[in-house]
Amino acid sequence: MVSWKLHAGSHVSNKPSVAAVSYLNTVPLVWGFLHGPQRDRFLLDFYVPSECAQRLETGKADLGILPVVEMQRQRLVAIPGTGIACRGAVRSILLISKVDPAEIRTLATDSGSRTSVQLARVILHHRYDAQPQLLRMAPNLTQMLSEADAALLIGDAALRVEPSHLPYAVLDLGQEWWNLTGLPMVFALWSGHPTTVERLMDQGAEQSFRDSLAFGLAHIDEIVAAESARRPFSPALVRNYLTESIVFNIGAEEQKGLETFLQHVAELNYDYAGAGSRPLSK
Question: Which of 52, 81, 200, 242 could form a disulfide with 19 if both were Cys (CB 3.0 to 4.6 A apart)?
Fold first, then answer.
């Protein structure tokens, strides 16, 4: 379900189309495209992560902020430099369990998620020796826990939950990954098919994405005011989440964390495991 949908600039057929994520964590990345000097560079539409992947796969978008497991599956390459990552607790990816994590046999997963589902599998396998059956469901915590031992909430659905108020075990999967590996966790990168990325890189796309993010970070007060008014979150939560929990600049450590994560996922026989070790960035 699309929570918001805006276009940067008017519909002009020769502008590249970009599928962005409708969650709060994407707002600084696209703020320049929506409000800054980069606003006429692309056509933007907003979806949940799995829908962004579908837009790329069906050719309905030139670029998208894609879950990294989908990048691997579709053999896409990344626009370097920016994305969505964390270095420790991320707050917006929560595994909530009625039982001890080691005893989880069924896990209800948000139907809009792909990378986070695989992260949950990796964490449960390596840290808790659990390999639950996955049940894809809408992100309704009460319903999820009525049908499964545990639930995985991501994005804004997770931010609506106050972990300390829940009578359940709550794992922040960003922190769990950090505890397992000591590395950042990369969730999504701007990406596209190799020929498209090469063409748009030649046209300055990498700098456009960097500039849009820089504009967003320079206008964080405006973002906090706008998003806390539009979403059911306090200004303090929005500010802390966007400035403390999420990492937007993707460097060498993030790349190392990404490669480690994909190795773990491949070992658990996710369906891209036969794709080889194709690099994800140009």
Answer: 52
